[in-house]
Fold this sequence. Notes:
By secondary structure, the protein is of the alpha+beta class. It has a single domain, classed as Aspartate Aminotransferase, domain 1 (Alpha-Beta Complex), CATH 3.90.1150. It is built from 3 helices and 5 strands. The chain has helices at 3-9, 14-30, 104-124, and strands spanning 35-39, 44-48, 56-62, 67-71, 92-96. Strands 1-2-3-4-5 form a 5-stranded antiparallel β-sheet. Strand 2 (44-48) and strand 3 form a beta hairpin. The termini are far apart.
Amino acid sequence: MNPGSSIILGAFPIPVRELAMEACTYLHSRLSGIEEQPDFPAKMIAFGYGPGYTDMICTLLLSQKGVKIGFYKGASLPDPHQLLTGTGKVHRYVQIGSAKDLDARLDQLIRAALGAYHERKATRK
């Protein structure tokens, strides 16, 4: 875990911290070579393959009550299990209530977000 990410997590209750650490481990296991980019003012952790939105796959959004995994351009991702929530026109998120939510249904969204990243990258060339 990025030291900056640990600083951000330290501001939250222990159950939120523990769930966020599990979510970080989950994301690292699904996204080979992913980089954590702490955003201190927003109190979130971005996961991507470079700086900026176009290289972002997802974010870990933290609150005093829980953890969400936000998806860059999530509104355009296929979501057969209807996990994505939020009313944003572009970004959507999945509420993570427990480690049990880090499952195969979420894996599908992660793969779709990774595929969307590769498409963005190919069109930038």
